[in-house]
Specification:
13 helices; Four Helix Bundle (Hemerythrin (Met), subunit A); mainly alpha; single chain; 63% helix
Length: 311
C-alpha cells in the first residue's frame, strides 16, 4: 500500500488499530459494575425503625446519579428505579456506548476524589472496601483487556487514539505494516499488543522486539540486501546502514540513532523478556512493556519510511 492509499485510509478513519471504539461488551460492563460496587461503597435504604445506620456512601451515589440524569435530561436511568446506586449500575449495563461511558466517567471521578482526599477512616465510613487507586488501575486494565479503546486520563475518559503517542506512532506503525510484504512483523506486533492488553508484559516485550527485527529483515528482502537469517537487531541495523538506509553525510546524528535503535528495545527485551529468569520470579511492570511497544512502533515507522524515501 503506497503513501496516498495509506493517507486516504487514515483520513477515512479506518487506519488499522488494535482497539475498537463502538461497542462495550457485556463482560466489560459487568466487570466495571463490580469495580464501582466495591470502590464506591454501600447504598443504605432506610426502613422501619432502624436505630443503627450502617456505613454507607448514599451522598456520593446520589451525586453520580444526578450528574448522569442531568446530562441526559432524565429523572431516572433504568425502567425500574430502586435507588441511585442500583439505577446507575443497571444503566451502565444497558445504555448505549456513549451514555455508558458517561456513567464510567462519573463513577471514576468520584473514585478519584476519594483517592486524593479520603483517609482510611473516611473510606471505611463510606463502606468502601478497595483502595481507590487500585480500582482506577483496574478500570484501565479491563478496558485494555477487552480491546476497547478508552482509558482514564486525569479523571476523564478519553479515546486511546486521541493520545498523541498512539495516534502519531502506534497507528502509523500498523498502517505501514498492513502492506502484505510485512505480514510477519504485523502479526508479531499485533501479538505484542494482545499480550499487553492481557497483562502478559514479558511476552509483550518479546513480541515487540521480534516485530522490530522482522521489519528489518523484510526491508532487506524487499531491497535484495544480503543478511544473515539469524542476525540480531544490532547486526541487521549494520546491514541497513551499509546499504545506505541513512546517509553518512548527515553528520553523527544517524550514528546516534543507530545506537538508540540497537540498544534501546533489545536492551529492554534482554533484561525483561526473552530469557529464562532462573530461580527469581521477575515481574515486568506495565510501564516497561508500554515503553517497549512505543519504542518498537517508532523504530518500525522510521525503518519502513526510510526504506521508501526517495530524494
Amino acid at each position: 500500500m503506497l503513501f496516498s492509499a495509506r493517507k486516504r485510509r487514515a483520513e477515512r478513519g479506518d487506519a488499522p488499530d488494535v482497539y475498537q471504539y463502538d461497542e462495550i461488551p457485556t463482560k466489560l460492563r459487568i466487570q466495571l459494575h463490580r469495580i464501582f460496587d466495591k470502590a464506591l461503597g454501600y447504598y443504605y435504604e432506610p426502613g422501619g425503625y432502624d436505630m443503627n445506620i450502617p456505613n454507607n456512601n448514599n451522598g456520593e451515589w446520589r451525586t453520580i446519579h444526578d450528574k448522569v440524569c442531568q446530562e441526559h435530561g432524565r429523572h431516572f436511568l433504568s425502567a425500574d428505579y430502586l435507588n441511585p446506586k442500583v439505577d446507575t449500575l443497571r444503566y451502565l449495563e444497558a445504555a448505549p456506548t456513549d451514555e455508558a461511558l458517561d456513567v464510567v466517567e462519573a463513577c471514576c471521578f468520584a473514585i478519584q476524589f476519594h483517592a486524593e482526599r479520603g483517609s482510611q477512616y473516611e473510606l471505611e465510613k463510606r463502606a468502601i472496601n478497595v483502595r481507590p487507586s487500585k480500582a482506577l488501575e483496574e478500570v484501565n486494565f479491563r478496558f485494555r483487556e477487552a480491546g476497547v479503546g478508552y482509558q482514564l486520563e486525569g479523571g476523564r475518559i478519553v479515546r486511546v487514539d486521541s493520545l498523541h503517542i498512539h495516534a502519531e506512532v502506534v497507528k502509523p506503525a500498523f498502517g505501514l505494516l498492513s502492506d502484505p510484504r510485512f505480514a510477519g512483523p504485523e502479526s508479531e506486533f499485533r501479538d505484542a499488543h494482545q499480550h499487553y492488553r492481557a497483562g502478559e508484559y514479558r511476552d509483550a516485550i518479546t513480541d515487540a522486539n521480534n516485530a522490530f527485527e522482522s521489519t528489518m529483515k523484510c526491508v532487506c528482502k524487499i531491497k535484495n540486501w544480503d543478511f544473515d537469517k539469524n542476525a540480531r537487531a544490532s547486526d541487521l541495523l549494520k546491514v541497513l546502514k551499509k546499504n545506505g538506509l541513512w546517509p553518512d553525510y548527515l553528520d553523527a546524528t544517524f550514528d546516534q540513532l543507530q545506537a538508540t535503535l540497537a540498544s534501546g528495545l533489545p536492551t529492554v527485551r534482554n533484561k525483561e523478556g526473552g530469557h529464562g529468569q532462573g530461580d527469581e520470579n521477575k515481574t515486568v511492570p506495565e510501564h516497561v512493556a508500554a515503553y517497549a511497544l512505543h519504542l518498537a512502533a517508532a523504530s518500525i515507522v522510521y525503518i519502513v519510511e526510510a526504506s521508501t524515501y526517495e530524494e
